[in-house]
Amino acid sequence: MEETKANKQRRSKFAKWWKTNHHHQKGHTWLCYAARNTVYTYAMNPQTFQDVNYITKRYFKSDYKRLSQNHAWRLWKTVHPLMNRRVRMLEATAEHLSIQKAELKQTKKEIKNEQRLALG
Fold first, then answer.
1. How far apart are CA 14 and CA 76, in angstroms?
2. Which of 117, 41, 113, 115 is nearest to 78 (CA)?
């Protein structure tokens, strides 16, 4: 399978980041916070959500605060998705929020109807 230009660029940027930050706790902490923020902001699939939560919980609870390169790469891919994946994430989040908005409107209507019936 041929690697796309965007994926090669993402890998090279990660390699550069890892070379400069693999001994620095601040870089690892930033990556964990950014990955958590991304996962909670977008409607991610459950497997990605569980992976990020597992890695970040393990990192924050350990005394030896250092990520392995494999775990850092997983978090890096979550924080820096490819463009087509980013578009799919935004579309899924928009759909999820529109469904929640419709449910909220329906709930408000039901509450108003119940209040009208109660008042007579």
1. 7
2. 41
- Can you tell me which residue has the tokens 């965007």? 6
Query: Which helix (H) or strand (E) element contains residue 54?
Result: helix 46-61
Closest C-alpha to 66, from 34, 11, 14, 26: 26
- Sign, CA dihedral 30-52-18-59, equals positive
Q: How many CA atoms lie within 13 A of 106 on its CB side?
A: 6
What Cα–Cα distance (Å) separates residue 12 from each residue in 4, 8, 18, 67, 101?
A: 12, 6, 10, 18, 40
CA distance 31 to 65: 12
pLDDT digits (tens, 9 = 90+) for 66-85: 899 999 999 998 888 876 77
Global pTM value? 0.69
Residue 37 tokens read as: 């923020």
Per the CB < 8 A criterion, the answer to whether 60 and 105 are in contact is: no
